[in-house]
Design a protein that fits this description.
The complex is a heterotrimer.
Chain A (H helix, E strand, L loop, with lengths): L14 H5 L15 E7 L5 E7 L1 H5 L3 E6 L5 H5 L24 E2 L5 E7 L2 H8 L3 E6 L6 H4 L15 E9 L2 H6 L3 E10 L10 E6 L5 E5 L4 H12 L6 E4 L15 H13 L3 E4 L2 H7 L5 E10 L5 E13 L7 H9 L9 E9 L13 H19 L3 H8 L8 E6 L5 E4 L4 H11 L5 H10 L3 E13 L7 E5 L5 E5 L8 H13 L6 E5 L16 H28 L6 E4 L2 E4 L6 E3 H7 L17 E4 L7 E13 L6 E11 L6 H20 L30 E5 L22 H12 L9 E2 L3 H15 L2
Parallel strand pairs in A: 1-12, 8-29, 10-11, 14-15, 20-21, 27-28
Antiparallel strand pairs in A: 1-5, 2-4, 2-6, 3-5, 7-15, 8-13, 9-10, 9-12, 13-14, 16-17, 18-26, 19-20, 19-25, 22-23, 23-24, 26-27
Chain B lengths: L6 E3 L4 H10 L3 E4 L5 H6 L7 E4 L9 E4 L2 E5 L4 H5 L2 H6 L1 H7 L5 H6 L2 H7 L5 H8 L3 E6 L2 E6 L4 E3 L2 E2 L6 E8 L6 E7 L9 E9 L5 E9 L6 E2 L1 H7 L6 H7 L16 H22 L4
Parallel strand pairs in B: 1-3, 2-3
Antiparallel strand pairs in B: 4-5, 5-10, 6-7, 6-10, 8-9, 11-12, 12-13, 13-14
Chain C lengths: L3 E8 L2 E8 L4 H8 L18 E4 L2 E4 L12 E3 L13 H8 L9 H14 L5 H7 L11 H20 L1
Helix pairs in contact in C: 2-5
Classes of the chains: A alpha+beta, B alpha+beta, C alpha+beta.
């Protein structure tokens, strides 16, 4: 095997196991003597706990233990879960206790753990645990939560303003004072949940040596280890966390959940392995999600529709706690300028506590909301100024010669928002071409003649990806000539193992089948950050490249010694090193690996180091910004409000592509998530903050009949920030979907004068909007 | 989400099943399982006993005699879907059943189970209402028949007693050449209908409607035969405009308000779906 | 009240005689008691389809069946699809070649559902494939790879049939 692997549509090494039912997800793990856990969860959105009576539960045969807050170690009783991204703007940066002590603040908050011989018995017992609740007023709608006199979501806090901050740059006052056009909009975006097909879960085992081994369906095994060590007050090297096969993550599995600490505490106490698998109902109640944002924005333009400024306010529902600080609303706030030249910007953000499960990033992480508002503002401006929506965008796009482009804001990585590379007009143009946008007016006219209503909509985005600080990779040549690779990366379907193997294969000229990758295991690779924010390829990829290059150098140096040849005359080929001159000898990588470890009793030459291995930590200087444009064509039925997607075109630039097959899959999957968010998914709560959509019959995920083929074209503008030129690709499919789809539906219903400033747009709301517009015209 | 503890029974005959139903006061009958099992898994129901009737072979049959088709209560929806007789003589049932869940649902789900569960949007329930089907019921004192108009009592509650078992259901056929149309509005393919409409029409040689059956599913807590619309159609020549006018009556039907749709939207859909079903039915009249 | 029954069930061609608690679902019985963990649980209320198996050749959600109902019947799970340890079924190969899976959690249900579908519909259209898998949710792939794999598998199976 020789030649390039990067950029090739290599089939995934992960697949054979998964296709034949030999995957190992956390619920597939069975240990001798394993017990099963279930949690008792709050049935009120806000209540004081005056007591917990577990006597009936403990009396049930097969029940081994019931633990409440009172039964926990001092550390677990007093240490709150970490705030993973602390931020000075947080006024009341509150996070949870692992088990509720004397107050619950959302339906589903864990109050006690039951451990039994089977999950069945654990559930039987959980139903018998009696909790003495004193219901307190519950805040449901975040707008009510920040209103004057609102009941506090936390009984001891004076109000529900968890945080307030401003993001701003430029002279906004002047921008608006001198504007030719001012347009104001109020917008609502609700993003729903991650809803990976595999729920959360953990299996915890205590070894004879006191080693705590935790298998967890997590995106962040190293974080989990660190937090467990802290909460359980154990030395970090007595804890090993393994992310086995993980059935999807999408964001919510990136945070640390109290259940994992409680299961571990129970395992330590009972000295038995314990398994806890979250069921789907629990997932709806107790796994984090994204939810509501309310934006009020004003846009200022000059006479040729050039942007002068955007200003306004945003209200963000963070739920009952802030495990990720203000990351999501902050990302949303700093993403608004997007790919446009926006001279001035001022946004005041209020983050509100409500008595609902906390919100943390879900695929897109606040960017879909920002893109939605900016794109809707532009469409509104286009309509007001009677300009084609594509044209107004063309006039305002940042030009390629302006790269790197300094926006004027500080991003969540603490660095100024500087778009490193990207050709926004080219991506825009490609999407226009791919979607046959220019001919759309004709298509629309023909359709209307047939009594059909079709529309087209545009959404463009810039996304900060590849966030640091690092994701390391170790590459080693084993004695048998195979290559072992370890990384702190933790995949949930992104094909990290294949991606890393491709990079290493190209450097070492070894077939993929000879490369064995281990990920997601704190024992295999001690320092890691995890999978979120589309960061793994952009961090681990360059680390793999750097590690493999160093190993390559060591291989050649060792070979030059063994073959007594010059390095320039040596070539790596198919698992060996060839000497291309003279008597053309070769030596296998396996032999080189053995030779590099010397002989017992003999010293190395001065300067010689053992082994053909190297660990590299690439540390990106800042986020790498990728971009794209989606153009969507829909048909809307004004009688029923049904929306059908006729065509979905994507121009996508995430820099160099390691594996286009995998990237295509990420785009297709990301768009599907965006379509779900826009047309189907809504996580509902009533006025008492009781969740009302708690099954897949009520919360609608798209099926194969709702998701079209996504026609995607790739542009590769390499990032200058890493040696591979890669950027993240996991979320770009989702980010502009709502903007483009809602714009298309509004365009389709233009004859009905409907305005859509919200997402999701459900059929009943569309019909209601048509009705409202008709009444406005004919009162 | 594991089921609560219960005792399990698997009778082989209808009499055995009725014997159990007569002595157990907190029992649930398990047919196809597509409705009961989710409820058990979610612990929405807590029966002391589950009576599995899947082994009562006598309840699985499709018989057609003299213009009437009879389904045994345990006839799988799959068998109805692939029945040539149903497709040929009861094409609206064939059209409707393709909307019942998904392949996996129909492989196990039964017509008897669907009728007894009486979900407001169940397509087979709507079919029974549309055809004035007759439900046969067995009890400790023998068998009886319940015309479908009397079968639903209220939301998901049927007229059968606790010690009775539905054994079958009979559908009288409409003559060859009848018009039929079934339209459903659901959020995703295979989902519960937010609103559905079933229309059956007969016309005379002048194209005037002589008989009409118009049924709404999913709109109210039980299927609704919209008699006002049916009566307004008699003696008239159908057309889309005429249907649009007449179907406004459907807006008055008492409608469900839930997380999927507000009541007034269902009422609105009722007018649209009924009109579309009638248009489809009219287009098929005479095309046997 | 943990009433049990003895059952005999054939799974992937192998006969199992087991005593099982009557309230255990077929899915939990296969996964926990028999160690056949290839069939996955995504919702336990009959919507996601990850638990789909073939029951006497017909696709069924194993989370909606009681284990005792399998007595005397034949089941095929994902573990029984490949003809041998060394060789995958054309449907599985088509999934691999068309990037029809990412995390792999929904995959077992997709495979059994498509096995039945392609057996009964050897020459399907794309729309027919989409309807066939409409009862199987996937959050990762956006379905395109799965649809492509199904259509590809149909061709492979047809070719294999013609060759034999």
């Amino acid at each position: 095997m020789s030649g390039k692997s990067i950029g090739a549509r290599v089939l995934r090494t992960e697949d054979a196991r998964l296709l034949t039912g030999r995957g190992e997800f956390v619920d597939d793990i069975r240990l001798p003597g394993m017990l099963h856990a279930a949690f008792v969860r709050a049935s009120f959105a806000h209540a004081r706990i005056h007591g917990v009576d577990a006597s009936a539960a403990l009396a049930l045969p097969g029940v081994r233990a019931v633990l409440t807050w009172a039964d926990l170690s001092r550390g677990l009783q007093t240490t709150r879960l970490p705030s993973l991204v602390p931020n000075p703007y947080s006024k009341f940066p509150r996070t949870q206790l692992a088990l509720a002590k004397d107050e619950v603040c959302y339906v589903g908050e864990a109050v006690a753990i039951v451990v039994a011989d089977s999950r069945h018995v654990a559930e039987d017992a959980a139903a018998l645990v009696s909790v003495d609740y004193e219901p307190l007023p519950a805040m449901s709608d975040c707008r009510d939560a920040v209103a004057e006199g609102a009941a506090p979501a936390h009984a001891d806090l004076p109000d529900n303003k968890a945080a307030t901050f401003k993001t701003a740059y430029g002279d906004v006052a002047a921008a608006f004072a001198g504007a030719a056009h001012l347009i104001k909009e109020a917008l609502w975006i609700h993003r729903g949940c991650g809803q990976a097909l595999e729920c959360r879960g953990v299996v915890t085992d205590v070894g004879r040596d006191g080693m705590l081994t935790v298998w967890s369906s997590t995106q962040t095994p190293h974080l989990e280890k660190r937090v467990l060590a802290d909460l359980l007050q154990r030395k970090p090297d007595t804890i090993r966390v393994i992310a086995p096969d993980v059935g999807g993550g999408f964001g919510p599995k990136a945070i640390f959940y109290g259940e994992d600490a409680i299961v571990a505490a129970a395992a330590l106490r009972l000295k038995r392995p314990i398994k806890w698998i979250e069921d789907r109902r629990e997932h709806f109640l107790a796994t984090t999600q994204e939810r509501d944002q309310y934006w009020s924005l004003e846009i200022a333009l000059d006479a040729d529709a050039k942007l002068r400024g955007v200003r306004g306010t945003m209200l963000h529902d963070t739920g009952a706690y802030m495990p990720w600080g203000v990351v999501m609303p902050y990302i949303a706030a700093t993403t608004v300028p997007g790919p446009y030249i926006l001279p001035a910007y001022d946004l005041d953000v209020t983050v509100a506590y409500t008595n609902k499960v906390p919100t943390t990033p879900v695929r897109g992480a606040g960017r879909p909301q920002a893109v939605f508002v900016m794109e809707r503002l532009l469409d509104s401006a286009a309509r007001a100024l009677n300009i084609d929506p594509a044209e107004i965008r063309r006039r305002n796009l940042i030009q390629p010669e302006q790269m790197p482009y300094k926006v004027g804001l500080t991003f969540r990585d603490g660095k100024p928002v500087i778009y490193d590379s990207g050709d926004y007009p080219a991506a825009f143009g490609k999407a226009i071409e791919l979607s046959a946008y220019a001919d759309f007016p004709q298509r629309q006219k023909r359709a209307r003649e047939e009594g059909r209503y079709i529309g087209i909509g545009i959404g463009s985005y810039v996304e900060g990806t590849g966030l640091g600080p690092f994701e390391g990779v170790r590459v080693a040549v084993e004695d048998d000539g195979t290559i072992s690779v370890q990384s702190g990366a933790a995949p949930q379907g992104q094909g990290h193992k294949t991606m890393l193997a491709q990079i290493v294969a190209e450097q070492l000229q070894v077939p993929m089948t000879q490369i064995h990758v281990t990920v997601g295991d704190t024992a295999a690779f001690p320092m890691g950050i995890g999978t979120f924010a589309s960061r793994v390829t952009a961090n681990a990829g360059p680390s793999a490249l750097l590690a493999a290059r160093t190993v390559r150098d060591k291989i050649l140096e060792t070979a030059s010694r063994i073959l007594d040849a010059k390095v320039e005359d040596l070539v790596l080929d198919d698992g060996k090193v060839d000497l291309r001159t003279g008597n053309r000898r070769a030596v296998s990588l396996g032999d080189l690996a053995k030779a590099s470890q010397g002989f017992p009793g003999f010293s190395f030459a001065p300067g010689q180091t053992p082994g053909l291995e190297h660990t590299a930590y690439f540390t990106p200087p800042q986020a790498a910004y990728c971009n794209g444009t989606h153009i969507v064509e829909v048909e809307a039925d004004p009688e029923t409000g049904a929306v059908k997607i006729l065509n979905y075109a994507v121009a996508h630039d995430s820099g160099t592509l390691i594996n286009p097959l995998i990237v295509d899959g990420q785009i297709q999957g990301g768009v599907a998530h965006g379509i779900g968010n826009t047309l189907l998914e809504w996580m509902g709560y009533d006025t008492n903050a009781q969740p009302v959509t708690t099954t897949f019959a009520d919360y609608l995920l798209p099926s194969a009949c709702e998701i079209p083929f996504v026609d995607a074209v790739h542009i590769e503008t390499p990032s200058p920030l890493n040696p591979l030129g890669v950027k993240g690709a996991g979320e770009g499919g989702t980010i502009p979907a709502a903007a483009a789809i809602v714009a298309a539906v509004e365009n389709a219903l233009d004859p009905f004068s409907v305005k859509l400033n919200e997402s999701p747009i459900t059929p009943d709301r569309i019909v209601a909007a048509i009705d409202k517009a008709r009444r406005r015209k004919h009162p | 989400m594991k089921p609560p503890p219960f005792r399990y029974h698997d009778p082989r005959t209808v009499d055995e099943a009725i014997g159990l139903l007569s002595t157990l006061d907190n029992a649930k009958v398990l047919a196809g399982g597509q409705s009961l099992m989710p409820m058990l898994n979610m612990r929405y129901v807590l029966p002391d006993d589950v009576i599995d009737i899947n082994k009562i072979a006598a309840l699985c049959y499709i018989r057609e005699t003299d213009g009437v088709i009879e389904f045994g209560a345990m006839t799988r929806q799959r068998d109805i879907e692939f029945s040539d007789v149903v497709k040929a003589r009861f094409p609206i049932i064939h059209e409707a059943i393709l909307n019942v869940g998904h392949r996996q649902t129909r492989n196990r789900g039964t017509i008897g189970g669907s009728l007894c569960h009486l979900d407001p949007s169940a397509e087979l329930v709507t079919m029974a209402a549309a055809h004035d089907a007759v439900v046969t019921v067995a009890g400790p004192n023998g068998t009886r028949e319940i015309p479908f108009a009397q079968f639903p009592v209220t939301f998901m509650t049927t007229a059968i007693e606790a010690n009775e078992l539905v054994t079958g259901v009979r559908f009288p056929r409409w003559p060859a050449g009848h018009g039929y149309g079934f339209v459903e509005f659901a959020r995703r393919h295979g989902d519960f209908a937010i609103a559905s409409a079933a229309a059956l029409l007969e016309t005379d040689s002048n194209g005037k409607i002589t008989r009409a059956s118009v049924t709404l599913g999913g709109v109210s807590v039980t299927p609704v035969r919209v008699r006002a619309v049916e009566q307004a159609l008699i003696g008239q020549k159908g057309s889309e405009d005429f249907f649009r006018e007449v179907c406004e009556e459907c807006r008055k039907v008492a409608a469900i308000d839930d997380v999927h749709a507000p009541a007034n939207y269902r009422q609105h859909l009722a007018t649209v779906m009924s009109r579309r079903a009638l248009v489809a039915a009219l287009g098929r009249v005479g095309k046997a | 009240m943990s009433e049990t029954r003895k059952i005999a069930v054939t799974i992937n061609g192998k006969r199992y005689e087991e005593e099982v608690e009557v309230r255990w679902t077929l899915a939990d019985f296969m996964r926990q008691q028999l160690g056949l963990t290839g069939t996955h649980l995504g919702c336990e209320h009959g919507v996601c389809g990850a638990c789909t198996i073939l029951f006497d050749g017909y696709s069924a959600r194993s989370c909606l069946m009681l284990a005792v109902q399998a007595d005397g019947h034949e089941i095929l799970t994902v573990e029984g699809i490949a003809p041998s340890e060394e060789q995958m079924h054309p449907l599985q190969e088509a999934f691999r070649d068309n990037h029809g899976l990412q995390c792999g959690f929904c995959t077992p249900g997709m495979l059994t559902t498509l096995l039945e579908f392609l057996r009964d519909n050897p020459d399907p259209t794309e729309q027919e494939v989409r309807i066939a898998i409409s009862g199987n949710l996937c959050r990762c792939t956006g379905y395109q790879g799965i649809v492509a794999a199904a259509l590809d598998a149909a061709q492979r199976l047809k070719a294999a049939k013609e060759a034999s």
